[in-house]
Design goal:
Shape of chain A: globular
Strand order of the largest sheet of chain A: 13-17-12-16-14-15
CATH superfamily of the largest domain in chain A: Dipeptide-binding Protein, Domain 3
Order of helices and strands of chain B: HHHHHHHHHHHH
Number of helices of chain A: 16
Number of strands of chain B: 0
Radius of gyration of chain B: 23 Å
Distance between the termini of chain A: 65 Å
Structural class of chain A: alpha+beta
Shape of chain B: globular
Oligomer: heterodimer
CATH superfamily of chain B: MetI-like
Helix content of chain B: over 70%
Largest sheet of chain B: none
Largest interface: A-B, 47 and 46 residues
Strand content of chain A: 15-25%
Number of helices of chain B: 12
CATH topology of the largest domain in chain A: Dipeptide-binding Protein, domain 3
CATH topology of chain B: MetI-like fold
Distance between the termini of chain B: 27 Å
Number of domains of chain B: 1
Radius of gyration of chain A: 25 Å
Structural class of chain B: mainly alpha
Number of strands of chain A: 19
Number of domains of chain A: 3
Helix content of chain A: 25-40%
Amino acid sequence: MSFSWQSVYRFLTRAVVGGLLLFSCAGCGSRAEQRADLVIINGAEPESLDPAIVTGQPDIRVAGALFEGLVRNDPHTGAPVPGLAERWEISDDGRLYTFYLRTNAQWSTGEPIMARDVVYSWRRVLSPETASDYAGQLFYIKNAEEFNRGEIKDPSRVGIKAIGPRTVRVELTGPVPFFLDLCTLPTLAVVPEWTIERYGDRWLMARPLPVSGPYELVSWRINDRIRLRKNRRYWDVAHTQNDRVDVLPVGSANTALNLYETGAADIVWDKELAPSELLDVLLKRPDFHTFDYLGTYFIRINVTRKPFDDPRVRRALAMAIDKTRIVEKITRAGEKIATHLTPPGIPHYDPPNGLGYDPETARRLLAEAGYPGGKGFPTFQYMFNAAAGGAAKTHEKIAVELQQMWRQELGIHMELRQAEWKVFLAAQSALDYDLCRSSWVGDYNDPNTFLDLFMSWSGNNRTGWKDPDYDRLLREANSRADPAARATLLQAAEALLVRDAVPVLPLFFYRGISYYDSTKIQGIYPNILDQHPINAVRKVR
Amino acid sequence: MINAPPALTPRQRAWRRFKRNRAAVISGLFLALVVLVVLVGPAICPYSPNALSEAQFQPPNLRHWFGTDVHGRDLLVRVLMGARLSLLVGATGAGVSLVIGVIWGAVAGYLGGRWDSAMMRAVDVLYSLPSVVFVIVLITTLEQLFKNWLSRLVSIESDSTVRLLFLFVGLGAVSWLTMARIVRGQVLSLRTRGFVEASRALGANEVRILWRHILPNMYGIIIVYLVLTVPAVILSESFLSYLGLGIQPPQASLGSLIADGAGQINPIRIYWWLIVMPGGILVAMLLALNFLGDGLRDALDPLAES
């Protein structure tokens, strides 16, 4: 037996079995099932769909389709327009808001939506038991912060009151200029009290699930799809365009592109779902749409761990990053590099410049902190979220770039740790990391949506950094009615954040890319908030 | 007087048979070459496997024989480093499986009776578990514990070292089952032979009988299965790295390089060298190891005398 066919056969069998193992998941999503009218690829699998819990952009898009608040986003501009409230009055000092609910506003199960539902929903977000990361969005309401901290036990002392069956009065701590924008957030959406009280944490599994928004939740299969169906009792049902919508969680840009190209999806609209290697070709196509919006890619530093408790170390890290290389070689969508946190383009605000690329100074700072040439600097970890399917690599590529830059310029050694999205968020909240990638997309068109992240109390702070001066500057700014005086205070706060304390390292400002065939899909309008209500999207046949 | 040809030792006869198997000989030479290149290559190559450069996504050319990747890193030197790691994991994993498998099988076969039944039923139970899934569970649940335990014994510089050790142990720990079965079968038949009886009658203790008389009679078959275990372990490691559970970046193994390349498969444009180069090397290595193993088995099997 000089050449054994048997061995070839055995080898091939092994290779085929191995290959099947490798690719066995390619067919997971393609169960024989009728295609929805509109299929949207939405980014990562939502952490939750509970409006009080969601913070991620993919989660918010879906939660926003299910639950509506008093105010909703205009699909064109993202500006606040009447939602469940048909109108409102604002007192002259800007501290008292009176909302009048629509008489035709009702739950998908038929019960009317009343003022007490609004009061319940907002108190629920503030209740310490809910542990909402976004509770801070309501702290502009009188006594809300104290109630959330547990200093006030009586919920009726919080400045939200039902003064009539369909009238809600809100008392604020100051003339907050962006309060109506806040009211568009899912956090402030109206949720069904009786379902939540009956089913507790598992209330989203209740069927039928009473919803206040344009869509009902039919099913939610993890890592497969979320199926939505038109809510026929929604007050504005006449303008809901599609009967059934599937929202697919896809983390990999190549998977998203493949699904789109083969017609399995109509719209891909998450910021990280266009394969960056192909952008030179793709951006020339008519179905690829780019736009500026309020989104920043940055790195969080856990300042409670050594040696990152030393601001000099953090500044050194910031100044040793060649951000231009990252946007030109890796992300490649024409992003602008960031030295400050607040993206350009917000009216009445000119963000202060932060730390630029200056390896020389970075080395000097590191030496001053006691680590000349990186000597004695401990090995640390950089955490980033791995995309589903293990194929989306932008975060990993940026991580590899940072790893090499810091090793070359500063002589320090960093390890990479990739974590699944939910694990990633949990580790971030628990401050179980050294450095981690992060991004923030503005919830409303005001610098405060970025700057209040790093207030001491904020559930989205997640760096361990606390500075009373910073808190004071922001509080003072938000109590000023004069835009110019307010901007000066906000600039001072941001300068403190990005020049001196540096608990975060901004890398670049996102450039939005969504892809869909605009001859077939209408109703998606570019706006600076990247807000595209699903009920406004129309499929032309 | 009959002019008899000089009698050949069994070893010489095996070597003759092996030399006649062309596929095995070529595979052996190829593997020797690969090992040499993988050990020496990265030192000669002018590029460092992790250094960034401006030359992004260059197709194979005279300066970069295998092209470059997204960070402008030379693919040739990364494939060499990857193959080095894959071979290391394969060899060590096979080594671990050798130690566990031989001891387990020999003890079970030699003691026989209830011991044999219990030990071989344990093997059967482990056989019924999907091994790669088993390693995945092992890595995700026990790695932290292992790390803590290890850091108490020695100071570890990096997590990737821990992961590498874990891969060695984990993959070895699931690959010894076949080896144990084969060794046990051999021991069962050998322990009743005359020379074993004789040494037992002379008062040799059990360990000595196993070590001096039984084991040397099984070298051939053990080597064969050792060589066949190496590609199986390499494939498992590549699979784990493909899933992101194996080697951590910026280190590369063939599996993680292929995963990077596979991420580039799309209908618009494919950077083919990113998947063809590491994939080709992996396939060639696995093929060669399998041929070599089969050739060795045919050569060392005394009944295969034609």
